[in-house]
UniProtKB/TrEMBL annotation:
Annotated TM spans: none
Gene3D superfamilies, alphabetized: P-loop containing nucleotide triphosphate hydrolases (3.40.50.300)
MF-aspect GO terms: ATP binding
PANTHER family: SPERMIDINE/PUTRESCINE IMPORT ATP-BINDING PROTEIN POTA, THIAMINE IMPORT ATP-BINDING PROTEIN THIQ
Protein known as: Thiamine ABC transporter ATP-binding protein
Keyword list, A-Z: ATP-binding, Cell inner membrane, Cell membrane, Membrane, Nucleotide-binding, Translocase, Transport
Natural source organism: Oceanimonas smirnovii
Coiled coil: none
């Protein structure tokens, strides 16, 4: 279980304070307006942003003393950080060994994850020879091959067209179940995310203002979430 209790950081323009629990095998979608604090939240969990107070633990162990590399966490960003001069195989392998020296078992792990993500036929290509959706699969494969129990996704599928986003969300759902991952995913497509997420957190002005399942979108409690969703169509008839 990933547990955040009053995890806080103060910036001149915004104080952020988050409490949240996320269980293995679940996807938590983080939604909210630009500047709400979604990326900062992931950065605090990943160890890339300052934390002033509060607690952050995984299975009861505090993560705060750990460096990003020591945390049981892997992060996929929108710009998937692929290396353009390397093959797909090497781009995945680098998740296991920065020097690309893999033993037999690790080579097998690369094959396995590529197969699961449907990119096993592309291993010798360079990223420039792939579509956007295939590139994001490679980025996801690099994260998954590391076998870390917590996966943080900072809008990795946003630039894809809706059909590809749907495909990748389904893949993510399958792998979350299979590997019992704890996934936190920032998205600007709330209704798409609701199809695969176990819980939705609406973040506003550095706080989680609403937390619930997909119903959150059809029955927003706050004017802020209504404004974010931007249409009266989502307000349930009383
Ligand atoms: N290093 C920093 N220095 C100063 N302020 C910061 C810093 N990091 C975050 N903030 C504050 O946190 C706010 C939230 O930023 P953040 O990028 O987390 O929002 P977001 O919800 O991810 O937005 P977007 O959807 O546009 O990516 C910023 O507006 C800023 O006030």
């Amino acid at each position: 279980m990933l547990t955040l209790t009053d995890l806080a950081a103060s910036y001149p323009e915004q104080t952020q304070c988050f409490s949240l629990t996320a269980a293995p095998g679940t996807i938590t979608a983080l939604i909210g307006p630009s500047g709400a604090g979604k990326s900062t939240l992931l950065a605090m969990i990943g160890g890339f942003a300052r934390v002033d107070s509060g607690t952050l633990s995984f299975n009861g162990n505090s993560l705060l003393p750990l460096t990003p590399a020591e945390r049981p966490i892997t992060t996929l960003f929108q710009d998937n950080n692929l290396f353009w001069h390397m093959s797909v195989q090497q781009n995945i392998a680098i998740g296991l060994n920065a020097g690309l020296r893999l033993n037999e078992q690790q080579q097998q792990q690369v094959q396995d994850v590529a197969l699961r993500l449907g990119i096993d036929g592309l291993l010798s290509r360079k990223p420039a020879q792939l579509s956007g959706g295939q590139q994001q699969r490679v980025g996801l494969a690099r994260c998954l091959v590391r076998n870390r129990p917590v996966l943080l996704l900072d809008e990795p599928f946003s630039a894809l067209d809706p059909a590809l986003r749907y495909e990748l969300l389904q893949l993510l759902r399958e792998q979350t179940n299979r590997m019992q991952l704890t996934v936190l995913m920032i998205t600007h497509h709330p209704s798409e995310a609701a199809g695969v997420a176990n819980q939705m957190a609406f973040i506003h002005n550095g706080r989680i203002l609403e937390l619930g399942d997909g119903e959150l979108l059809s029955a927003p409690r706050t004017t802020e979430l209504r404004a974010y969703l931007g249409t009266t169509a989502v307000i349930r008839e009383e």
